[in-house]
Structure prediction request, 133 residues.
Amino acid sequence: MIESRRYEIPWRAILPPLLTATIFILIFRKVPFARFTDALRDADYVRFATALLPFSVFYFALDSVVLWRVVRWFHGELALADLLPVRAVDYLLSILNHRVSQGAMVVYLARRLSTSSGGSTSCSLRIVLVFGV
Prediction:
């Protein structure tokens, strides 16, 4: 006998875009869309990039050094030069999904350092809990 399963709506997948759309609707009820596009067209992107790029490089360097130090304290030797490209890819992956990027970093550290994935996970959690990164 074939069981009939009711189709369930995946709320965890639907809720974030729905919430984002709701926020945009609320914003554009107060701010006309034409005014918004004018502001984007008239923005000084060179000045914005001039302010954003040094901060981004500083944050990337600081975050990478913190991860490198924590890994060295708890799991052994790892060269900072080996970690930087992986951390850069981790940042790009976190644009799509932050949890997946954290998982990818855990898998990389577990394989690179020949430790358990639990040990690498505890390293990432320690950074999040202590530094809020």
